[in-house]
Amino acid sequence: MLIRYKKSFEKIAMGLLSFMPNEKDLKHLQQTMKQYEADEFWQLFLWKEDDDIIGTIGVVFEDDDRVKIQHVSVNPSHRHQGIGRKMVAALKEQYKTKTVVPDERTKAFFEKCTEPDC
């Protein structure tokens, strides 16, 4: 289930985001978290299954019609189970009146998620 980020989930969200290659540096990761908390156009969502938060997906609203996925991360012990695909599908469902697109960092994963045989 996709849920909105809340400050009480900060440590979990930071841990998940730290798996993204460009978020390895702590200072950069802290700046990213501040951006998600302060900027109304940046939204962070968490994926919850069986009372555990196991994934995160972050977006930026580019305009009224486009939502760009800029972060997708799943706890390593839950990878290869379709969690990332589920997060992308849930995000598309939540914003079905908008076009959901990837950024350069999430493009390869996004394209894999939208393959017809997946």
TrEMBL record:
Gene3D superfamilies recorded: 3.40.630.30
Entry keywords, A to Z: Acyltransferase, Transferase
Entry GO MF terms: acyltransferase activity, transferring groups other than amino-acyl groups
Stretches assigned to the N-acetyltransferase domain: 3-118
InterPro entries: Acyl_CoA_acyltransferase (IPR016181), GNAT_dom (IPR000182)
Protein name per the record: N-acetyltransferase domain-containing protein
Organism lineage: Bacteria, Bacillati, Bacillota, Bacilli, Bacillales
